[in-house]
Amino acid sequence: MLEARLEQAGVLKKVVEAIKDLVQDCNFDCNDSGIALQAMDNSHVALVSMSLSHEGFSPYRCDRNIALGINLNSLTKVLRAAQNEDILTLKAADSPDSLNLVFENTERDRSSEYDIKLMDIDQEHLGIPDTDYSATVVLPSAEFQRICRDLSQLSESVTIEASKSSVKFSCSGDIGNGSVNLRQHQDLEKPDQSTSIELVEPVSLTFSLKYLVNFCKASALSPTVKLSLSTDVPLLVEYKMEAGYVRFYLAPKIGD
Amino acid sequence: GRKQQTILSFFKQP
Question: Is the ipTM, as predicted for this complex, more than 0.85?
Answer without folding.
Answer: yes
